[in-house]
Amino acid sequence: MAEEVLVSISLIIAVAAVLTVLARIIRQPPIIAYLFAGIIVGPVALNLISPNGSSSELISVFAHIGVAFLLFIVGLSLDFRVLKEIGKVSTTVGLAEIILTSAIGFIIAIGLGFSNISALYLGAIFAFSSTVVVVKILSDKREIDTLHGRIALGILIVEDFVAALALMIVPLIQSKSSFYLMFGKFLGALVLIAVIFLISSFALKRILDYLARNQEALFLFGIAWALVLASIFSSLGFSLEIGALIAGMSLASSKYTLELGGKMKPLRDFFVVLFFVFFGSQLTPEINIPLIKNAIIFSLFVFLGKPIIIMGLLRTFGYKKRTNFLAGSSLAQISEFSLILALLGFNLGHLSQEVMNLAILISLITIGLSSYSIYYSRWIFSKISRALFIFEGKKHRNLIDKVKTFDVVLFGYHRIGYKILKELKKLGLSFVVIDYNPKVILALSKEGINCIYGDAEDKGFLSEIGLEKAKLIISTIPEDPVNKSILEYLNRTNADSVFIATVEYAKGALDLYKEGADYVIVPHHLGGEYASKMIAKFKTNKKEYDKIRKKHMSELKKGKEKSNYN
Predict the structure, then answer these.
(1) Residue-wise over 383-411: b if at least 16 C-beta within 10 A, else e?
(2) Which of 437, 432, 431, 487 has the alpha carbon at shortest distance from 457?
(3) Topology of the domain comprising 398-563
(4) For residue 466, is pLDDT > 60?
(5) What pLDDT does residue 330 have?
(6) In this structure, which of 100, 257, 298, 363 has its CB flanked by the most CB atoms within 10 Å?
(7) Cβ–Cβ contacts within 10 Å for residue 480, how many?
(8) What CATH code would you report for 2-388?
(9) Where along the chain do its domains lie?
């Protein structure tokens, strides 16, 4: 039996490895490869993982361990203090999106003939988007720090907190349990969680300080803490997933969070592969036309309806249609939390095999489609932007009564914009700040700073403000499409303006120089040059470093206050 299990796992990993390479070639996230690997090794094809197979139970155990490690590491990033930092926009939109998506999803499911409990699960499954997929693709596109990237990431964090709550409540939904019994268990769980956080705040801090002296000890403690709490919650009638998540959250404020997460990621990645493979293997050959029809209907709702909900909500905060589209289209898929929720409901007997098959198909369709829609979101927007006029946030025309000519035009206030603005004031030149974040514009207007709400990628807007008349144009937005849009407009209008752009990498700087940019700011190059001069000047004089350290901390705090309008 041991040899049979070893052969099965070896074949599963081999299939997953081959499909992961293929997925990378066609620009799909690894999750898709793992799910397809599960379908191939499951009852539909090779039948290496079948309900009655000798290897099925062991792989199921490995899959649950993978989920525990996945949620433990997710929990490490869910510090309660994060909710204060992501801002009102992400929090409000995230909660409203969950409510609206769940409600509409529930109504559609009822209309298609599903039972109330199945419709509730499906509504919840549709509400959550994949943090793993979105963060990976936005990172590849270097858009994590853009306005739409930060909004999308904030919404994902809110969704993760709500998903954690759902994982705790779901095991309590038993048809034979009374409301009072369920409520009592829920209160008991809250008390247990409070005790865990108290222990973490006082006792674990000292324990971790001691364990950190030995890397292996810290690593083993992380594994033990995740699995022990997962087992405790499971034995009390809750899901082991919520136990692992609470284990991570209880350590989220620790100074060893990054080290713990980094050490456990390789172990997590191995077991998570087996989880997604196991989930994919739950797809049975009983796939019929009605099932495929329902999968397409629900997938269209997630892929099209969910972004429309998010875009409509963001519009109420005054964001431009481009920001709304890019943020909304990033979240057009179901989450790894959705898969965990579906598997949990199936194991508890709440969901039928048909609904389980449906969840697998929806995950494959939505994750696959959204991967391409995120990669090519800017191109898609350029083709359909006119049709998105209803998602255009309100204009702040009252900030400047008449657009006039300014000596300097500064695009983008956050990041390094506020530092440049400080110097412009000293020079006595007339200037205007242009930003497409309405919160930034409103804050600047209160300070009496000339500002215009607009999008640098919009050629019509650039013409409206007469950009070619400015003597100096500075873009602090490190997005290639934005800088190229400004440069193309200046070249087309034969402007004699000095154009200074900002990029993150050397290649982007060289491309802009070839197209005619006068100077390109590459922050890490400038940072390295400044640091080398500082070292040459102060050498090993600790007192001098202490002086500059205090000054730098003061500037960073001011910069954070000035630029954090999200």
Answers:
(1) eebeebeebebeebeebbeeeeebebbbb
(2) 487
(3) Rossmann fold (3.40.50)
(4) yes
(5) 92
(6) 363
(7) 19
(8) 1.20.1530.20
(9) 2-388, 398-563
Percentage of the chain modeled with pLDDT above 90: 17
pLDDT at 459: 75
211-247 pLDDT, tens per residue? 877 878 888 888 888 888 888 888 877 777 788 888 8
Question: Given this chain, do its domains 2-388 and 398-563 carry the same CATH topology?
Answer: no
Residue 85 near residue 300, CB atoms below 8 Å: no
Q: Which residues of 514-524 are buried (b: 16+ CB within 10 A; e: fewer)?
A: eeebeebbbee
0.85 surpassed by pTM: no
Confirm if 332 and 369 have CB atoms less than 8 A apart.
yes
Per-residue tokens: 406: 């300014």
pLDDT reported for residue 176:
53
Q: At what angle do helices 542-563 and 417-427 cross, to 10 degrees?
A: 100
Paired tokens of 547: 């002086």
Q: How far apart are the C-alpha atoms of 462 and 146, rounded to whole Å?
A: 20
Q: What pLDDT is stored for residue 128 in this prediction?
A: 93
| DSSP collapsed to 3 states, 292-339 | HHHHHHHHHHHHHHHHHHHHHHHHCCCCCHHHHHHHHHHCCCCCHHHH
Residue 78 phi/psi, 5-degree rounding, is: -100, 60
Scanning 200-256, the segments in alpha helix (DSSP H) are 205-211, 215-235, 240-250
- Return the closest-CA partner of residue 41 out of 55, 26, 62: 55
Q: What is the mean pLDDT of residues 161-165?
A: 83
Q: What is the CA radius of gyration of the chain?
A: 26
Whether 83 has a pLDDT exceeding 80, the answer reads: no
Q: How far apart are CA 63 and CA 443, in angstroms?
A: 49
**Which pLDDT tens digit goes with each residue over 252-295?**
877 778 778 777 888 878 887 888 888 888 787 777 899 999 99
Pairing assessment for the beta strands 472-475 and 451-453 based on DSSP bridges:
unpaired
Query: What is the structure's pLDDT at 306?
Result: 95
Cα dist. 410→42, 149, 283, 452, 563 in Å? 57, 21, 54, 10, 14
pLDDT of 487-525, one tens digit each?
Answer: 988 988 888 889 999 888 888 889 899 888 899 988 888
Q: Rounded distance, CA 425 to CA 494, Å?
A: 28
Instruction: Compute the distance between CA of residue 310 and CA of residue 96 in angstroms, rounded to an integer.
Output: 9
